[in-house]
Predict the 3D structure of the following.
Amino acid sequence: MRCVIARYPFDLSKSGVLASMKGVKPELITGESVTIGRRRYPVKQVGEVITRQDRRDFTSGEVIRAMARLGFTCHDHPEAAPVRVLTPLQTASALLGSPVPLEV
């Protein structure tokens, strides 16, 4: 598939992207991401590897459009860890050092 990223044309294929990302360790995901194989990569990392350009030269939207057209799953935001909310009784017990269990 032919696409334009940072004003440069690229001929990308799904197998080519898989081969390029093989052995690349995913960085910490703080924003948009792409699932390639069994791993989730930040969009900018994927763009840098497949285009060999600096991350500042292209937008994440350009890479997301290309990856979506190739059939990869794109994600808007990283999955947040569930936040544990304590009840007022649990909070007070924890502050006082009482042996009341936090799991109810």
Remarks:
- Residues 2-75 form one domain.
